[in-house]
Amino acid sequence: MNIFLHLLKFHLITVYFFIKLITRQKKQVVFLSRQYNDISLNYAGVIDLLEEEGITYKCVCKKVLSSINDSVRTQGNYSNGQTFFKKILKNFKESLSYYFSLYSQMRLIAESKVVIVDGYNIVVSLLKHKKGTKVIQMWHALGAIKQFGYQSIGKKDGINSDMARILKMHNNYDYILSGSEGMNPFFAEAFNTDISHVLAIGTPTVDYMRKKNPEAKKKIFKRYPQMKKKTNVLYSPTFRNDKQDNTQSLIDVFDFEKCNLIITNHPKVDNNTLDSRVIYINRDEFSTFDIVKVVDYVITDYSALMIDAAIANKKILLYVYDYDKYSKDNGVNIEMLKDFPHISSKSAEEIVKIITDDRYDEEEYAEFKKLYTPNIKGSSTKKIVDLIKRCLTDEH
Questions:
Q1: pLDDT at 395
Q2: Domains 2-202+377-392 and 212-372 belong to one CATH topology
Q3: I want to staple 314 with a disulfide (CB 3.0 to 4.6 A). Which of 141, 146, 227, 309 is the partner?
Q4: CA–CA dist 1, 318 (Å, integer)
Q5: For the chain, what is the radius of gyration of the CA atoms?
Q6: How far does Cα 151 stand from its chain's mean position?
C-alpha cells in the first residue's frame, strides 16, 4: 500500500509542477469537495453571497466512494492492501472518474487565489501551491465531538499514521473554520496546526439553523401528518464502522402513546429494521437540518448534529450505549457521561424516561450551549465572505 501511495504522490507532484507553469493565477475562489456530489448547504450559502459581491468562483464536487475511502484511511483496514485494490477494481469506473477529476482540481487550484475545502483533499494538502494561494478549511461539521484526523492516528477506527505522513494529511491550511471557541483546541489537534489558524466564526449552517423555515415545516407535516399530534423525538445516530446503531433497543422501550419516534439513518447505513410505529425520514426528500427544526428532542451520540440542534434550540439527548468501546476505538473529545451526565446515558430506557417523565435538565443543556454553540454576532456567512475578500486582496 505504501509503495502505491508514494507512486501516486510522485505522479501528482510532477503533473502539478507543469500545470502551475502554464496556468495564470486569478482573483478567483474555487470550492472543492469529496464529501458530496452536489453543492452543499455551506458552499451554497457562501456562493450566493459571492455572486452578490461579483466575485468569480468555480466548484468541483466529486464524492469518493465510502467503501474505497474507508479501506485506505482506517487503521484496521489499511494493512490489507488486497482489500483496497479489490474495491478499486470493483468500482473501477468511479475510481477512474475521481482520478481524472484530480487534474481539473489541480488546474483550478493553480489559477485560483482562494481554495475552500470541506474535508481532506489530496491535491490541496499534498502539493506545493503558488505563492499567495490561501486555503480555507470549512469543515463539514461545526464541532469535533468524536476525534478525527491527527487525533485518531493509531486507533482501531482512526487514521493510519503512514497514510497521514505520506499524503500530508490536512496540510497547507491557512484558516480553519470552527463552530465555537470551545471547539478550537480540538480542531487544532485534529488538523495538527497552531490554534491561531482556527477561527470560531461558524459556517452557513449556523445561519440556516437560526432561521425559521415555515415552508419546509409545512411540507414535512403534510407528508407526515401524525407529527402534528404528539411530542416529536428524532433519533439520528452517527456512523460506526460495524454499521450498528442500536436502534431496536430504543424502539423496544419507546413510549409511542406519548411521542412520535422519527429516525434518519446515516447515509452509509442500510438499516432494514422497519417498524410501523416509527416515522422513517427519507434524507433525499427532506434534509436532517429541516427535520431538526420541527422536532422537540434530538437523540444522537457522537455526532456534531447535537450542535446544530442546540443552535435551533432543540433539546438534545446523548444515547451513548457503546461509550467505552467507541472511546477506545475512535476517541471522543467530550466526555459526555462525566461532563453532561443528566442529558447523556448508556441506557435507552433512561433516555426515554427523561422525555416521558418531563425531567430534562435545562441547566446542563444551557451549559452545553454556552461551551459549544457559536457566540457570534451577525452572519457567519458574511464573516466567511469578508475573510475571502481579505485573502483575494492580500489584506490579512
A1: 47
A2: yes
A3: 309
A4: 38
A5: 22
A6: 16
Contacting residues for 101 by C-beta, under 8 A, at least 6 apart: 60, 62
Mean pLDDT value of segment 333-341: 96
- Cβ neighbour number for residue 218 with a 10 Å cutoff: 11
pTM of the model: 0.92
CATH of 2-202+377-392, one of 1.10.443.10, 3.40.50.720, 3.30.70.330, 3.40.50.11820: 3.40.50.11820
Q: Please tell me the distance from the alpha carbon of residue 55 to that of residue 26, in angstroms, as a whole number.
A: 11
> Exposure string (b/e) for 327-360, b if CB count within 10 Å is 16 or more?
bebbbbbbebeeebeebbbeebeebbebbeeeeb
Question: In this structure, which CATH number among 3.90.1150.10, 3.40.50.12580, 3.50.50.60, 3.40.50.620 belongs to the domain 212-372?
Answer: 3.40.50.12580
pLDDT of residue 71: 56
What's the CA gap between 170 and 124, in Å, rounded?
8
143 pLDDT tier (thresholds 50, 70, 90): very high
